[in-house]
């Protein structure tokens, strides 16, 4: 199973994608057919999936050592 620290890394990568998508949307940039809407959609959906997985993992494991599982 995926460790919590790997889920957090995926979450931060998705956050970066959302920030870059917002920049693309504000400045009306497009890169090879990928625009701000696409980046924001992918980033926000991946953040939601990671949050759900993280919540399920936290509630399943009741140990206090959060990051080193």
Structure in words:
By secondary structure, the protein is mainly alpha-helical. It has one domain (4-60). Helix content is 71%, strand content 6%. It contains 2 helices and 2 strands. It has helices at 4-27, 36-60, and strands spanning 30-31, 34-35. The protein has a two-stranded antiparallel sheet with strand order 1-2. Helix 1 runs antiparallel to helix 2. The model has no long low-confidence stretch (mean pLDDT 86). It comes from Flavobacterium sangjuense. The chain crosses the membrane at residues 7-26, 38-56. Keywords: Membrane, Transmembrane, Transmembrane helix. InterPro entries: GldL-like_N.
**Overall helicity:** over 70%
Rg (CA only): 15 Å
Poorly predicted runs of 5 or more residues? none
Broad structural category: mainly alpha
From the structure above, extract its key features.
69 residues, mainly alpha, two-stranded antiparallel sheet, 2 helices, 2 strands, elongated, transmembrane helix, GldL-like_N, membrane
Write the layout of secondary structure elements.
Elements: H1 4-27, E1 30-31, E2 34-35, H2 36-60
Antiparallel strand pairs: 1-2
TL;DR?
By secondary structure, the chain is mainly alpha-helical.
């Amino acid at each position: 199973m995926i460790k919590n620290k790997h889920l957090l890394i995926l979450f931060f990568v998705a956050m970066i994608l959302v920030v870059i998508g917002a920049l693309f949307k504000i400045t009306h940039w497009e890169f090879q057919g990928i625009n701000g809407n696409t980046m924001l959609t992918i980033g926000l959906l991946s953040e939601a999936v990671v949050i759900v997985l993280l919540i399920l993992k936290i509630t399943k494991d009741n140990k206090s050592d959060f990051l080193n599982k």
